[in-house]
Design brief:
about 180 residues; mainly beta; nine-stranded antiparallel β-sheet; eight-stranded antiparallel β-sheet
Length: about 180
């Protein structure tokens, strides 16, 4: 696959973001659970690099550390249990009630146009995050231990839920 255009130069697009769900409630996290939101990269560019992951801290507040990342998934909703890690952001302290928090992704893969991914968030303590309730009951959680160094592939079974955490993905396209 040739990565450079006709002129031999790589063209970078302006930063874009996914359109997250509009939250209507607070989710109180369970320690040792990954909460997912799913996204398909557009086909307007040849490939993408992720530049950030954003969430909204809930009205109930919280403490501790938050870890976010991106896994490769097979479909929306996912069926296959194995999810290779494609990006991981730095751990950060929970920012406080009603604060929008964003992390820059430090370690990441290149995402091809049309790739499907699962953006996830995990906390090492009970904290609240904004979510959307009354959704279709589908696989969107995994019971995994909180880790500052997530495994390169997670094989934990999916858990269905009717709520979806509010996560936004930031990325730049290249062609």
């Amino acid at each position: 696959m040739r990565l450079l255009g006709q002129s031999g130069r790589l063209r970078e697009s302006a930063e874009k973001s996914s359109t997250p769900v509009t939250p209507n409630a607070d989710l109180t996290t369970v320690v040792g659970t990954r909460y997912y939101a799913f996204f398909t990269f557009p086909t307007t560019e040849r490939f993408y690099l992720v530049s950030g992951i954003e969430w909204i801290c809930g009205t109930l507040g919280g403490t501790g550390l938050v870890q976010a990342g991106i896994d490769a998934i097979d479909a929306i909703p996912p069926v296959i249990t194995a999810t290779p890690l494609q990006a991981v952001a730095q751990r950060v302290a929970y920012a406080g009630a009603n604060i929008t928090q964003r992390v820059s992704v430090l370690s990441r893969d290149i995402f091809r146009s049309g790739n499907i991914c699962g953006i996830w968030l995990s906390s090492d303590s009970v904290s609240s995050f904004r979510e959307l309730t009354a959704q279709a009951n589908q696989n969107q959680r995994k019971a995994t231990a909180f880790s500052a160094a997530p495994p390169t592939q997670d094989v934990t079974a999916w858990t269905a839920s009717m709520t979806r955490i509010r996560l936004r993905l930031y990325f730049r396209g290249y062609s």
